[in-house]
Amino acid sequence: MDSTDKAILKLLQEDATLSLDDIAIRIGASKTPIWNRIKRLRESGVISHQVAIVSPQAVGLDTCFFVLVKTSEHDSTWQSQFLDALRARNEVVEAHRLAGEIDYLLKVRVSSPRAYDQFYQGLIADVKVFNVTALLSMEELKYTTALPI
Protein backbone atom coordinates (compact mmCIF):
# COMPACT_ATOMS: atom_id res chain seq x y z
CA MET A 1 0.00 0.00 0.00
CA ASP A 2 1.50 3.31 -1.07
CA SER A 3 0.71 6.94 -0.26
CA THR A 4 -1.94 7.14 -3.00
CA ASP A 5 -3.80 4.13 -1.57
CA LYS A 6 -3.64 5.73 1.89
CA ALA A 7 -4.93 9.03 0.53
CA ILE A 8 -7.85 7.24 -1.13
CA LEU A 9 -8.63 5.41 2.11
CA LYS A 10 -8.53 8.63 4.13
CA LEU A 11 -11.02 10.24 1.77
CA LEU A 12 -13.34 7.23 1.74
CA GLN A 13 -13.26 6.97 5.55
CA GLU A 14 -14.45 10.58 5.73
CA ASP A 15 -17.13 10.18 3.06
CA ALA A 16 -17.71 6.94 1.18
CA THR A 17 -20.25 8.68 -1.06
CA LEU A 18 -17.58 10.73 -2.84
CA SER A 19 -17.77 10.29 -6.57
CA LEU A 20 -14.88 8.82 -8.49
CA ASP A 21 -14.42 12.27 -10.07
CA ASP A 22 -14.13 13.94 -6.65
CA ILE A 23 -11.60 11.38 -5.41
CA ALA A 24 -9.51 11.65 -8.57
CA ILE A 25 -9.45 15.47 -8.37
CA ARG A 26 -8.48 15.46 -4.68
CA ILE A 27 -5.76 12.85 -5.24
CA GLY A 28 -4.52 14.52 -8.41
CA ALA A 29 -4.91 11.51 -10.70
CA SER A 30 -7.21 10.33 -13.45
CA LYS A 31 -10.33 8.29 -12.75
CA THR A 32 -9.26 4.95 -14.22
CA PRO A 33 -6.19 4.41 -12.01
CA ILE A 34 -8.18 5.53 -8.95
CA TRP A 35 -11.00 3.13 -9.82
CA ASN A 36 -8.50 0.29 -10.26
CA ARG A 37 -6.92 1.05 -6.88
CA ILE A 38 -10.31 1.14 -5.11
CA LYS A 39 -11.28 -2.12 -6.79
CA ARG A 40 -8.01 -3.73 -5.66
CA LEU A 41 -8.48 -2.40 -2.10
CA ARG A 42 -11.95 -3.99 -2.02
CA GLU A 43 -10.81 -7.30 -3.51
CA SER A 44 -7.88 -7.59 -1.09
CA GLY A 45 -10.12 -6.93 1.92
CA VAL A 46 -8.57 -3.59 2.89
CA ILE A 47 -12.00 -2.06 2.30
CA SER A 48 -14.29 -4.56 3.95
CA HIS A 49 -17.62 -2.70 4.11
CA GLN A 50 -19.34 0.46 2.99
CA VAL A 51 -22.19 1.45 5.28
CA ALA A 52 -24.31 4.37 6.42
CA ILE A 53 -23.52 5.41 9.99
CA VAL A 54 -26.79 6.11 11.76
CA SER A 55 -27.05 8.53 14.68
CA PRO A 56 -28.07 6.48 17.76
CA GLN A 57 -29.93 9.49 19.16
CA ALA A 58 -31.92 9.93 15.96
CA VAL A 59 -33.29 6.38 16.25
CA GLY A 60 -33.93 6.43 20.00
CA LEU A 61 -30.84 4.52 21.14
CA ASP A 62 -29.19 7.27 23.14
CA THR A 63 -28.27 5.10 26.12
CA CYS A 64 -24.86 3.44 25.89
CA PHE A 65 -23.48 0.92 28.36
CA PHE A 66 -20.05 -0.63 28.46
CA VAL A 67 -20.45 -4.08 29.93
CA LEU A 68 -17.54 -5.89 31.59
CA VAL A 69 -18.00 -9.66 31.70
CA LYS A 70 -16.00 -12.08 33.83
CA THR A 71 -16.48 -15.79 33.43
CA SER A 72 -15.22 -18.85 35.22
CA GLU A 73 -15.88 -20.87 32.07
CA HIS A 74 -13.25 -20.94 29.36
CA ASP A 75 -14.04 -24.06 27.37
CA SER A 76 -15.03 -23.98 23.71
CA THR A 77 -18.66 -24.95 24.40
CA TRP A 78 -19.19 -21.97 26.70
CA GLN A 79 -17.39 -19.63 24.31
CA SER A 80 -19.60 -20.81 21.45
CA GLN A 81 -22.77 -20.28 23.54
CA PHE A 82 -21.58 -16.83 24.58
CA LEU A 83 -20.79 -15.84 21.01
CA ASP A 84 -24.19 -17.10 19.86
CA ALA A 85 -25.87 -15.07 22.63
CA LEU A 86 -24.02 -11.93 21.55
CA ARG A 87 -24.80 -12.41 17.88
CA ALA A 88 -28.50 -12.86 18.71
CA ARG A 89 -28.66 -9.48 20.44
CA ASN A 90 -28.67 -6.44 18.18
CA GLU A 91 -28.08 -4.22 21.21
CA VAL A 92 -24.46 -5.39 21.24
CA VAL A 93 -22.72 -3.13 18.75
CA GLU A 94 -19.16 -4.15 19.73
CA ALA A 95 -17.70 -7.08 21.62
CA HIS A 96 -14.08 -7.72 22.53
CA ARG A 97 -12.27 -10.59 24.26
CA LEU A 98 -9.68 -9.10 26.56
CA ALA A 99 -6.43 -9.96 28.25
CA GLY A 100 -6.38 -9.27 31.98
CA GLU A 101 -8.94 -9.45 34.79
CA ILE A 102 -11.97 -8.80 32.59
CA ASP A 103 -12.72 -11.46 29.99
CA TYR A 104 -15.05 -9.54 27.65
CA LEU A 105 -16.02 -5.95 26.97
CA LEU A 106 -19.33 -5.21 25.28
CA LYS A 107 -20.66 -1.94 23.94
CA VAL A 108 -24.43 -2.02 24.21
CA ARG A 109 -26.82 0.55 22.70
CA VAL A 110 -30.35 0.70 24.11
CA SER A 111 -33.19 3.17 24.51
CA SER A 112 -33.10 3.32 28.32
CA PRO A 113 -31.71 1.76 31.50
CA ARG A 114 -34.85 -0.40 31.62
CA ALA A 115 -34.06 -1.70 28.11
CA TYR A 116 -30.54 -2.47 29.31
CA ASP A 117 -31.96 -4.51 32.19
CA GLN A 118 -34.04 -6.52 29.72
CA PHE A 119 -30.90 -7.13 27.67
CA TYR A 120 -28.98 -8.17 30.80
CA GLN A 121 -31.71 -10.53 32.02
CA GLY A 122 -31.83 -12.21 28.61
CA LEU A 123 -28.05 -12.57 28.42
CA ILE A 124 -27.67 -14.20 31.84
CA ALA A 125 -30.61 -16.49 31.09
CA ASP A 126 -28.85 -17.74 27.96
CA VAL A 127 -25.29 -18.09 29.22
CA LYS A 128 -23.65 -18.51 32.61
CA VAL A 129 -21.36 -15.66 33.63
CA PHE A 130 -19.41 -15.14 36.84
CA ASN A 131 -19.73 -11.37 37.07
CA VAL A 132 -21.19 -8.56 34.98
CA THR A 133 -20.47 -4.88 35.55
CA ALA A 134 -22.35 -2.28 33.54
CA LEU A 135 -20.96 1.21 33.09
CA LEU A 136 -23.30 3.91 31.78
CA SER A 137 -21.68 6.32 29.35
CA MET A 138 -22.66 9.82 30.44
CA GLU A 139 -21.22 11.54 27.37
CA GLU A 140 -19.48 10.42 24.20
CA LEU A 141 -16.37 12.58 23.95
CA LYS A 142 -14.98 11.17 20.72
CA TYR A 143 -16.32 8.78 18.12
CA THR A 144 -14.88 7.85 14.78
CA THR A 145 -14.79 4.86 12.50
CA ALA A 146 -11.77 6.25 10.64
CA LEU A 147 -8.49 4.44 11.23
CA PRO A 148 -5.36 6.58 11.67
CA ILE A 149 -3.75 5.74 8.35
Question: What does the model show?
Answer:
It holds the Pfam family AsnC_trans_reg. InterPro entries: ArsR-like_HTH, AsnC-type_HTH_dom, Dimeric_a/b-barrel, Tscrpt_reg_AsnC-like, Tscrpt_reg_AsnC/Lrp_C, WH-like_DNA-bd_sf, WH_DNA-bd_sf. This protein has helices spanning 3-14, 20-27, 31-43, 76-87, 113-126, and strands at 63-70, 92-97, 104-110, 131-136. It has 149 residues and is α+β, with helices and mostly antiparallel strands. It folds into 2 domains: 3-43, Orthogonal Bundle (Arc Repressor Mutant, subunit A); 57-136, Alpha-Beta Plaits (2-Layer Sandwich). Strands 2-3-1-4 form a 4-stranded antiparallel sheet. The longest helix has 14 residues, at 113-126.
Helix % is 25-40%
- Kindly report the name of the CATH homologous superfamily of the largest domain: Lrp/AsnC effector binding domain/regulation of amino acid metabolism (RAM) domain
CATH C-level name of the largest domain: Alpha Beta
Note the gap between the termini.
Answer: 11 Å
Radius of gyration, in Å, reads 20 Å
Please state the structural category. Answer: alpha+beta
CATH topology descriptor of the largest domain: Alpha-Beta Plaits
Per CATH, which architecture of the largest domain? Answer: 2-Layer Sandwich
Instruction: Give the number of domains.
Output: 2
Number of strands: 4
User: Which segments are poorly predicted (pLDDT under 50) over 5 or more consecutive residues?
Assistant: none
Protein name: Lrp/AsnC family transcriptional regulator
Domain HTH asnC-type: 1-62
InterPro entries: ArsR-like_HTH, AsnC-type_HTH_dom, Dimeric_a/b-barrel, Tscrpt_reg_AsnC-like, Tscrpt_reg_AsnC/Lrp_C, WH-like_DNA-bd_sf, WH_DNA-bd_sf
Keywords: DNA-binding, Transcription, Transcription regulation
